[in-house]
Write a structure and sequence with these properties.
heterodimer, A: mainly alpha, Rna Polymerase Sigma Factor, Chain: A, Arc Repressor Mutant, subunit A, 9 helices, 66% helix, B: alpha+beta, Alpha-Beta Plaits, elongated, WH-like_DNA-bd_sf (chain A), RNA_pol_sigma-70_dom (chain A), transcription (chain A)
Chain lengths: 191, 222
Amino acid sequence: MIEQTASPRPGADLPDRLLAVRAAEGDDDSFALLVQRHSRPLLALARCMLDNPQDAEEAVQDAFVGAWRRLPEYRHSAEFRTWMYRITVNRCLTMRRRRPPLLPLDVVAEPATGDAWSQPARTAEQDAATAALSRALAELDAGQRVCWILRELQGLPYKEIAHVTRTSEQTVRGRLFRARRSLQEAMGPWR
Amino acid sequence: MALDDPHKRPSAPPGAGRPRSGSAADVPPFAGDEVLPCGRLLSRAWEEAHDAAPPPDPHTVSCPHCREAVEGLATVNAAARALRDEDPPGLRALADRVMDAVRAEVRSGRLLPLADPDRDLRIVESAAAKVLRRAADTVPGSRAATCRLVPEGNGTDVRVTMTLAVALDRPLPDRVHQVRRSVLRSAGQDLGLTVTAVDITVADVLEPGPPLGPRLPTGAGA
């Protein structure tokens, strides 16, 4: 009993694979825990891949709902996280094809000052540098951008990035290098 | 030695060992790559600093050219850190919208008879399974995975099939017995189901760790 009351939500201690098995059998509470666990990095990924925050939210929502429908067929050959990344990346790429950005530089997801999520210690200069990085990211080729985001913002190893993007580790490394190169140049004025 | 062997090509990725040899004699594998004065490729210096698993490569640590190359990315790194730490707004609302959509197409499973003499009362499988999984979870060191319920015969009998993830700190038979008892009790008391048998398979091992910390390691990552 002590163990139960110590947990904020039942099942919060369960590993992803167990939650995914339960969710596949229709347990929506287990799926809610997976959503809670993974929505932050997936939304961050989608916001970097798409040009406006609404599209990013829509992509992540579609990805989760699609995952819920496909869970009964999900064979657990990949980690749940990798599987979700892959669905989200595919969704973002489809949305990019469907809606070519009209004003890519103006509508890019930028950190707005004064939001609840801004760190109080952040200086205006840091905000501007972050905004510049977001703009530079938006100008990268989609393949390079997703590799860079998965590596630098999400900390995935090459192997998992290759799996998510359906390519080889060597291609991932090449894209990562070119992305770093381009970003370094774009961020030159901020040194 | 790499200098004499132009075919010695990059192979092992960082994280799974050391990066490719990366000496000047290697053909730069990536467009725009360059050879640093120390003979290393720029791409390798960056990979060593950013992606390689510990321990750190001694050359990268001591070489001034590599260090300079790595410092060239400092501005990008600082901005990336800031970007990484940002919580996207609308996160909570997004999770709520996802769950609204999910619950609108809930998978209920079959209808099961409750232990009611008139056989009028029924419960959907997913709801019953949720309660029985919770009963299994109350046994320390045990967590239910699958839970299926199948009617047996023409009456109100139901058979439960469950798989468990179990910690290995106690003998398995004890624990499985406890789970079966807990599931039977809950089926009778909480649901009013006549469960004839609870078939249990131990399908996974629970990693040792704090009993109910924020989350167990999922095995994700490198």
